[in-house]
Design goal:
Blueprint: H1 7-25, H2 34-46, E1 50-55, E2 59-65, E3 68-79, H3 106-122, E4 127-135, H4 143-149, H5 152-155, E5 160-167, E6 175-176, E7 180-183, E8 185-194, E9 198-199, H6 210-228, E10 235-244, E11 252-253, E12 256-265, H7 268-288, E13 292-299, E14 304-306, H8 308-322, E15 327-328, H9 340-346, E16 349-355, H10 374-388
Parallel strand pairs: 3-4, 3-5, 5-16, 6-15
Antiparallel strand pairs: 1-2, 2-4, 6-16, 7-14, 8-12, 8-13, 9-11, 10-12
Helix pairs in contact: 1-3, 1-10, 3-10, 6-7, 8-10
């Protein structure tokens, strides 16, 4: 553990671990985090913070004002929702809800922010205001947008906003961030090919063969990034689902076939290119086979772009906690998506990863947040507040 962890956070480690494991055992899907939100709100009230519940459906915001005069205000954000995955860890505190588990570390994110709130509430020796933002529904259900639509930054004004995510498989306590585009815009796409179908044995010539249109489309997808996206940019198009016909009736040519997948891009112009080419290829190959295609593209997150000044602030705070050798301020961008991007479009700020150790990857049945990270993440939040809301600033 880094040496610059306040003694009080080390003392709180067992309590924070108990909170994290309680949340882990009772996971809730996005916009359904009623138990988690109630737990968060109760803790914050017990520690003397002003608490607003129901922000963006099930979000919670705790507000703490420093004992020193100051007009500055920052927001610190953690996410609370779980995933529709059946846990297979066999841990004593494993999920008690079949088919739902904390497989992305949000139980740890929530707890680290609670730890920082507890510490700062006991010693609010800073100038200005901190808003502790506990967001619902990061996993594709629009939690950041819901909080923003509910007036998040109008009701809780912030000069800057910061986020943090566990980094599965990265060395414990290694902080990673970069200025500019850091995470991709994430989306889902689906194409439905439709035609008249027919008998594949006796009259295939009378049917529109959707399988040929679909096959050419899937192969054509592989050309979109290579021939439409500039070589210096990164984009991803992947197929994750194909369906059509019935396994018990292979002699029937289906009247409908579906293919779907994910799409990632780092800029809005690249998003527009990918979306346009998906439509053009699907409809073009459908026309060649005498069938039709409908295309749906749904962007779940915007590109996550870190602001320069706030990235420097986050880097400084991380180095103060973990040392310069444990902070990579020029980390490689990732094509993972994160809806904190919407908050960064509304306010300047920065997002980083902090290493979770050698645990299995996120979004897998064996993932578990490393409790040794709890005081490290909490210490980062504390240092960031002390630094950005310094007395006299």
């Amino acid at each position: 553990m880094p040496p610059n962890i306040p003694l009080r956070l080390r003392e709180l480690h067992p309590e924070l671990t108990a909170i994290r494991r309680d949340i882990h055992a009772h996971p809730e899907m996005g916009l359904e985090e009623k138990r988690t939100a109630a737990l968060v709100a109760a803790c914050l009230r017990d520690w003397g913070l002003d608490v607003a519940e129901g922000v963006g459906h099930t979000g919670v915001v705790g507000t703490l004002r420093g004992r020193r005069p100051g007009q500055g205000a920052i927001g610190l954000r953690a996410d609370m929702d779980a995933l529709a995955i059946q846990e297979a860890t066999g841990l004593p505190y494993a999920s008690t809800r079949p088919g739902v588990m904390h497989a992305c570390g949000h139980d740890g994110h929530t707890t680290m922010l609670l730890g920082a709130a507890r510490f700062l509430a006991e010693a609010p020796d800073f100038a200005g205001t901190v808003h502790f933002i506990f967001q619902p529904a990061e996993e594709g259900r629009g939690g950041a947008d819901a909080m923003l639509a509910d007036g998040l930054f109008d009701r809780f004004p912030c000069d800057a906003v910061y986020g943090m995510h566990t980094g599965a498989g990265r060395p414990l306590g290694l902080f990673e961030l970069r200025k500019g585009p850091f995470m991709a815009s994430a989306g889902m796409w689906k194409v439905v090919f439709t035609g008249n179908g027919g008998h594949g044995g006796s009259k295939p010539h009378l049917a529109s063969d959707l399988s040929i249109a679909l096959a050419h489309f899937v192969l054509g997808l592989q050309t979109i990034v290579g021939r439409n996206v500039p070589p210096g940019e990164t984009a991803v198009l992947c197929v994750g689902h194909i369906a059509g016909g019935a396994a018990d009736s292979p002699n029937v040519m289906p009247a409908e076939m579906v293919v779907a997948g994910t799409v990632r891009a780092f800029t809005r112009p690249t998003r527009e290119v990918l979306e346009r080419r998906l439509h053009e290829l699907a409809q073009g190959f459908a026309a060649l086979q005498g069938c039709a295609a409908t295309v749906e593209v749904r962007w779940i997150t915007a590109p996550l772009v870190n602001h320069p000044e706030q990235t420097d602030a986050a880097t400084s705070a991380a180095r103060a906690v973990a040392g310069a050798a444990a902070v990579d301020a020029d980390a490689e961008p990732t094509t993972g998506g994160e809806d904190f991007a919407a908050m960064l479009e509304a306010r300047p700020g920065a997002f980083l990863f902090v290493g979770n150790g050698t645990s299995p990857g996120v979004h897998t049945p064996m993932f578990d947040f490393n409790d040794e990270l709890l005081p490290i993440g909490a210490a980062y939040w504390v240092r960031l507040v002390q630094q950005e809301l310094a007395i006299g600033s």
